């Protein structure tokens, strides 16, 4: 056991730093050519990097003031891209991975629908085979960054005559395809929009862009969601990124607010939880490199990390009182390293309700931990075994749409 | 960087597990009025001494095994998992005090006997209110010292051959060794709620004390960090076992035509505990590593582990009883043994909020 992270004098670190000093504002394509945008992927895309190298690259990019590629193009680099390595064809990899790794094409995830995000298997959007193409019709919703993405990973129903989880397929969709309409939705933070709704009308996608076989869709997205959850276990206030408990404590100590007996003990609790989350994340990395089976940290980690982030930004607010209620006028200092939105506690706080919704709600996550890790019985789904086209139940429109009418 | 346990550590843990699963029997405690003595408190110790566990942390120069804190955490974790009633905690505590505050001669003489399984120790620390070294006063008597006062909540006091006593000498905190059988030493058992331990008071009336000559301001913090690790290792392992027991029960017990564990109100609680159990274990491994490496972060890591694992164990034992229903609230089930161990572990060296205060103070000092 060795809890030391690679030091300042590590030759690998020195090499990275030297290159970044010689190339002070590299393009992401340059970084991708070095395998630095997805270092943990195998060659030729990445370096099959172990945890130490991954950590050092993260730290050195941060030090050089370069926004992490896995933050900038998260859906491609953290969530969906990797499944092209296992489920994709060589042609798909050659077409889609280089621009994704270079952050020249950003990706979005087209999973949730008005029919429900938790019960994703209930989705209504269909794809019908027509010659060498499929024709997609339906609607997606809550899709982060769909408005600025070139590529969408979309799950649709290709067979309605089988039970709901069986007839699903995944496609890689060029967002410029005719028939795709993206409409931003303003979220409650009121900031630059996070998510969108996406309408699909007779959208033709080549059969060659189907990931895996028809019917593999459910397995593929479950895998992608697990990978995504793994990435969200770091102790940042917002899905693993954003301000941390260390930074909160630092701000509270520097402003003297730590002396407030009404926040002091809570601050200590959050600090400790943040440190332990960090340990869980590193231990997961460490397990991976040792060839041991991936630990339970991914699911567990997000289950702990999301409410941790909410409490963290809540304490940052509480420590400021009414002064913290003025938009973007935090009096609690934060180092300038979170690249825009999460540079202040204010946005972290008003965004934080989303942390226990996106990428699996807290309730769904607890189900997953209880069922997959503890082996407790699964929730009942009376519709699970019935062919999808025979599930006949009244449509409940989401409240938002109902209000519009 | 390698956050996983080595095969050697896992082997040690497995060996401890096999031994304790065979030797520890808590059933005699499930009768009202039973005490640790009824569950092999003395007999188990003899077997443990044969395995050499008393010498785990004694350096090789004094005849011990000189093993690391990570090794220790493996063994202590298993003892916590099984609630093994035996005077291990007291002996560890006394050993650390002597190791830190004893002269070369004192360490060789006193710890040699511990390593050989010939002596058991205890550490007498607190006043009735939990203040360290406040309730016993030492006075010089020629080249000797005399101790007077009462120390409370002394774990394994009645079993100990020697008791290390924290006392004030000229206003400073010093550590002394007292022979348990000497004149002026009276030991009384307390009706301690956790009946898997034996806890008592030590009353000294002019008892002869041998000053540990290296006692200084750092003795207690140094020993305390190690005691934090010990209790946290017990608590983390205890959290895991009461979670596992509750999960097993929730799979078997039926209500409304389904196993209890099919209901979200139950399964979500257990999922949360699984998270706490993981974090508690990580905290213990980190603290054990930091102490092993004599890393500057060790005091922080130890305080974090003790506060987090105490809270996790308390939450887990509470949920465990709730999942079992009324049967979990009976004396004849072992759920309450864990419940009480959890509660007592969280108070023995000061509450979790106190360790969190220590964490904040360490951070404040770092920032200054
Ligand atoms: C900021 C943000 C970004 C997002 N980005 C994307 C994206 O990029 N792509 C995408 O496809 N989706 C995205 N989503 C959607 C997200 O995946 C869904 O919101 C989520 O899956 C929940 O679905 P829902 O909103 O339809 O709520 P519902 O599924 O209707 O759930 C409503 C409530 O009921 C609870 N609930 C549902 N089922 C159960 C159950 N079985 N047991 C107990 N409780 C239950 C839920 O936990 C929740 O509290 C994003 C969401 C947010 C907030």
Task: Give a description of the structure.
Chain A folds into 3 domains: 11-66, no CATH class; 107-215, Butyryl-CoA Dehydrogenase, subunit A, domain 2, CATH 2.40.110.10; 232-372, Butyryl-CoA Dehydrogenase, subunit A, domain 3. Chain A is 40% helix and 15% strand. Chain A has 14 helices and 10 strands. Chain A has helices at 11-22, 28-33, 51-63, 69-72, 74-80, 82-87, 90-101, 217-230, 245-254, 261-289, 297-318, 345-351, 362-373, 399-404, and strands at 107-110, 126-130, 133-141, 151-157, 168-174, 180-185, 195-206, 210-211, 236-238, 241-244. Chain A has a 4-stranded mixed beta sheet. In chain A, strands 2-3-7-6 form a 4-stranded antiparallel beta sheet, with no helix packed on it. Chain B has 3 domains: 7-115, Butyryl-Coa Dehydrogenase, subunit A, domain 1 (Orthogonal Bundle), CATH 1.10.540; 121-211, Beta Barrel (Butyryl-CoA Dehydrogenase, subunit A, domain 2), CATH 2.40.110; 219-367, Up-down Bundle (Butyryl-CoA Dehydrogenase, subunit A, domain 3). In chain B, the strands form 2 sheets. A 5-stranded mixed beta barrel of chain B has the order 2-3-7-5-4. In chain B, strands 8-9 form a two-stranded antiparallel ribbon. The chains are: A alpha+beta (405), B alpha+beta (368). At the A-B interface, helix 3, helix 9, helix 10, helix 11 and helix 13 of A face helix 6, strand 9, helix 7, helix 8 and helix 10 of B. The complex binds flavin-adenine dinucleotide (FAD). Flavin-adenine dinucleotide (FAD) binds at residues 108-112, 116-118, 142-144, 194-195, 354, 357-358, 361, 363-364, 379 of chain A.
The gist of it:
Chain B: It holds the Pfam family Acyl-CoA_dh_N. Chain A is of the alpha+beta class and 405 residues long.
CATH topology of the largest domain in chain A: Butyryl-CoA Dehydrogenase, subunit A, domain 3
**Helical stretch count of chain A?**
14
Q: Mind describing the biggest β-sheet of chain B?
A: 5 strands, mixed, barrel
Mean pLDDT of chain A: 90
Query: Rg of chain B, please?
Result: 21 Å
Main CATH class of the largest domain in chain A: Mainly Alpha
Choose one word for the global shape of chain B: globular
Strand adjacency order, main sheet of chain A: 1-4-5-8
Beta-strand proportion of chain A = 5-15%
How many strand segments of chain B? Answer: 9
Cofactor (chain A): FAD
Protein name (chain A): Acyl-CoA dehydrogenase
Domain Acyl-CoA dehydrogenase/oxidase N-terminal (chain A): 14-102
Family (chain A): Belongs to the acyl-CoA dehydrogenase family.
